[in-house]
């Protein structure tokens, strides 16, 4: 069962979907479910290995040796990565590492510098 949000007008939890709209049967308020999806995407927060919130442009430090697939090189512990960019997906950090090049990292293997 999907968890629908409470009515923004009367806070009723008896909300149902009618096509692309959400409807409150108690106050008859109707609103778009697309707004709810957009708010949920905005609330998605990316945290590092220690729980600090990451944002675009932050500098991070690698906390574990990371082998690069298809290569014999390794990103060593303590490597500082500047100007990260947050993206959707499993590897949610897009960056460029000096000496290695562009790559994607998982936020669980970095900490905010």
From TrEMBL:
<dbReference type="InterPro" id="IPR013988">
    <property type="entry name" value="YjdM_C"/>
</dbReference>
<feature type="domain" description="Protein YjdM N-terminal">
    <location>
        <begin position="4"/>
        <end position="32"/>
    </location>
</feature>
<comment type="similarity">
    <text>Belongs to the YjdM family.</text>
</comment>
<feature type="domain" description="Protein YjdM C-terminal">
    <location>
        <begin position="46"/>
        <end position="113"/>
    </location>
</feature>
<dbReference type="InterPro" id="IPR013987">
    <property type="entry name" value="YjdM_N"/>
</dbReference>
<dbReference type="InterPro" id="IPR004624">
    <property type="entry name" value="YjdM"/>
</dbReference>
<dbReference type="Pfam" id="PF08274">
    <property type="entry name" value="Zn_Ribbon_YjdM"/>
</dbReference>
<protein>
    <submittedName>
        <fullName>Alkylphosphonate utilization protein</fullName>
    </submittedName>
</protein>
<dbReference type="Pfam" id="PF03831">
    <property type="entry name" value="YjdM"/>
</dbReference>
